[in-house]
Backbone:
C-alpha cells in the first residue's frame, strides 16, 4: 500500500493541504492498494492560477518546440510501460495482456501521434484578404474517468499541450495512480512550470472548480451524462468551451445477409471489452426476428468462452468490474431486467465462483424495446438482444436512444452495411467487425456529448480561430 500525499502544481510536487485521503482499491483483490490526497477547491484554484501564468510563455513557443516535449513524454511513458500496465490492471481490472495493448499502448501511441499531427497541421490559412490563424484556446481543465484512465487523459492533455494550451488535470478518484506516474514522466521531461498541473480529488470538489473558474477557458470532460450535464451547467456561466464525451447505448445491427457466426462473435466481443465498462461498447444486439433462436445459440456459445478471473491470471478473458459500487449497480440492473420480464439467455445476477474481486457473470438478456435495459447504460458485462422485423425497424430501434456514440453494422457486403451505417445517428459506426481507428474522430451525437477526440479532429478542439483582415494591395 502506497500513500501519495502530494499534488503537482506549478512544476512542483506540493504537500496536500488537507488530511483527507481517498482509498484506491485493487479491483481484483478488493484490497486498498494506495491512498491519494483529496484535493481542495483552493488547491484546484492554485493550479488554475499556475496554468494561467504559464500560458503566455508556453503558447508563444513554436509547434516544433512543444512537439519535442511530447516526444520526450512519449519516450518516458514507454520506459515505464510495464509499471503502468500492472498499475491499471490493478486499478481497473483489465486482463494484463489486453491492458498492455489497450490501456498503455494506446495512450503511448496517442502522445506520439499528437506530436506528429501538430507538426503537419496548417495553423494558418487564407480566405481572400484575411489571414486565418488557429491559436491555443488557453487554460484547459481536464476531468477524466476510470475506465480507460490513461488514454482518456492522453486524448485531452496531449492535444491541449501541443496546441499551446496549459492544463489542470483531475483524474478519476477510482484510478488515479496512472495519472501520478504520467505527472512524474511530464516532470522528468522538463515542461516549464505551470504548463501541466495535477490535482487529485473528488468531482464535486476539484472538478467543479475547473468547470466554473473564470480563468479556465475550456473544460474537457469524459464520464457519465449526469456529471457532464453538471459540468456544462457550471461552465455556461463563464461561456467556456465545453467538450463532453459521455455515455452510450450502442447497437450492433446484424442484417439478414450477414455472416451470422462472425457477426455474433464480433458483437459479443465489442460488448465485453473492459468488462463492458466502455462508453462505446456495443451493448445492444439487434437480430432479425425470424433468426432469433439461431443468434441466441451462437451468442451462448461465444459468451461461455469468456472465462472470468483476476487480471493477473493468464487464463482470464474477462476481469472484474472496477469497484463494489459499479458491481452492485450492474447486478441491480440485471435483476431489474429480469423483474421487468427479460429472458435470461446467459449468465445472470448470481455470484460467480471467485473468492475476491468485483466480478459479475457475463450476461445476455433478451429484452423488449420498452424495457429499462433497452435504454439505460449498464456499464458492465451485459448484452441485451432485441429483434426487428425489417431493416427500417432495425434502424428505428438502433436510433431509439438518448445516446448516439457508436454502433456496428454487419451485412453481406460492405456497401449494404455502409448504407445502413449512414442511417444511424451516432458518431462512429464499425462495419463488418472493422478495427478501431485511433486517428478517426471519436465522439457522440445526442446525449453522448459534443466535440471529437483522436487525431486531427482532437487537436482542433483546443484551438480558437482568429481572422486578421489585411488591406487590399493597391495596384
Ligand atoms: P462520473 O461521471 O461521476 O466520473 C467521471 C469524472 O467526473 C470523474 O473524474 C469524477 O470525479 C468527475 N465528476 C463527478 N462529478 C462531477 C462534478 N459534479 N463536477 C465535475 N466533475 C465531476 O462517473 P462514475 O465514475 O460515477 O461512473 C458512473 C457511470 O458513469 C458509469 O456507470 C457509466 O455509466 C458512466 N461512465 C461513463 C464513462 C464514459 O467513458 N463515457 C466513463 C465512466 C463512467 P470522481 O473522482 O469524484 O469520481
Residues:
Amino acid at each position: 500500500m502506497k500513500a501519495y500525499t502530494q499534488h503537482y502544481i506549478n512544476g512542483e510536487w506540493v504537500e496536500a493541504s488537507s488530511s483527507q485521503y481517498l482509498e484506491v482499491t485493487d479491483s481484483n483483490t478488493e484490497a486498498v492498494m494506495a491512498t491519494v490526497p483529496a484535493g481542495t477547491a483552493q488547491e484546484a484554484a492554485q493550479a488554475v492560477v499556475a496554468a494561467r501564468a504559464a500560458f503566455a510563455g508556453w503558447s508563444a513557443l513554436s509547434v516544433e518546440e512543444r512537439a519535442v516535449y511530447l516526444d520526450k513524454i512519449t519516450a518516458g511513458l514507454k520506459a515505464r510501460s510495464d509499471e503502468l500496465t500492472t498499475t491499471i490492471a490493478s486499478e481497473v481490472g483489465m486482463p494484463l495482456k489486453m491492458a498492455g495493448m489497450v490501456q498503455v499502448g494506446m495512450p503511448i501511441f496517442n502522445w506520439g501521434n499528437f506530436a506528429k499531427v501538430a507538426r503537419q497541421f496548417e495553423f494558418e490559412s487564407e480566405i481572400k484578404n484575411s489571414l486565418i490563424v488557429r491559436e491555443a484556446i488557453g487554460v484547459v481543465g481536464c476531468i477524466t474517468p476510470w475506465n480507460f484512465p490513461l488514454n482518456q487523459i492522453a486524448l485531452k492533455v496531449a492535444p491541449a499541450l501541443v496546441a499551446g494550451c496549459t492544463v489542470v488535470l483531475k483524474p478519476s478518484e477510482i484510478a488515479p495512480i496512472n495519472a501520478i506516474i504520467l505527472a512524474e514522466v511530464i516532470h522528468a521531461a522538463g515542461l516549464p512550470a505551470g504548463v501541466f498541473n495535477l490535482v487529485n480529488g473528488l468531482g464535486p470538489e476539484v472538478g467543479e472548480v475547473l468547470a466554473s473558474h473564470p480563468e479556465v477557458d475550456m473544460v474537457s470532460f469524459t464520464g457519465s451524462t449526469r456529471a457532464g450535464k453538471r459540468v456544462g451547467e457550471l461552465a455556461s456561466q463563464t461561456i467556456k468551451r465545453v467538450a463532453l464525451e459521455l455515455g452510450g447505448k450502442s447497437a450492433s445491427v446484424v442484417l439478414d445477409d450477414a455472416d451470422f457466426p462472425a457477426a455474433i462473435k464480433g458483437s459479443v466481443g465489442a460488448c465485453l471489452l473492459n468488462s463492458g465498462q466502455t462508453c462505446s461498447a456495443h451493448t445492444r444486439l439487434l437480430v432479425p426476428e425470424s433468426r432469433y433462436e439461431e443468434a441466441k445459440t451462437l451468442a451462448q456459445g461465444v459468451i461461455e468462452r469468456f472465462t472470468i478471473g483476476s487480471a493477473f491470471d493468464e487464463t482470464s478473458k474477462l476481469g472484474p468490474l472496477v469497484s463494489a459500487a459499479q458491481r452492485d449497480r450492474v447486478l441491480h440492473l440485471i435483476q431489474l431486467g429480469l423483474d421487468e420480464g427479460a429472458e435470461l439467455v446467459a449468465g445472470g445476477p448470481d455470484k460467480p465462483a471467485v473468492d475476491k474481486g468485483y466480478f459479475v457473470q457475463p450476461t445476455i438478456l433478451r429484452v423488449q424495446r420498452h424495457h429499462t435495459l433497452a435504454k439505460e447504460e449498464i456499464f458492465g458485462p451485459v448484452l441485451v438482444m432485441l429483434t426487428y422485423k425489417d431493416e427500417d425497424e432495425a434502424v428505428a430501434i438502433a436510433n431509439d436512444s438518448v445516446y448516439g456514440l457508436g454502433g456496428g453494422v454487419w451485412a453481406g457486403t460492405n456497401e449494404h452495411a455502409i448504407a445502413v451505417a449512414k442511417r444511424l445517428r451516432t458518431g462512429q459506426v464499425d462495419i463488418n467487425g472493422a478495427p478501431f481507428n485511433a486517428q478517426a474522430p471519436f465522439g457522440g451525437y445526442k446525449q453522448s456529448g459534443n466535440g471529437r477526440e483522436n487525431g486531427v479532429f482532437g487537436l482542433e478542439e483546443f484551438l480558437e480561430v482568429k481572422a486578421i483582415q489585411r488591406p487590399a494591395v493597391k495596384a
Q: What stands out?
A: The radius of gyration is 23 Å. The mean pLDDT is 98.
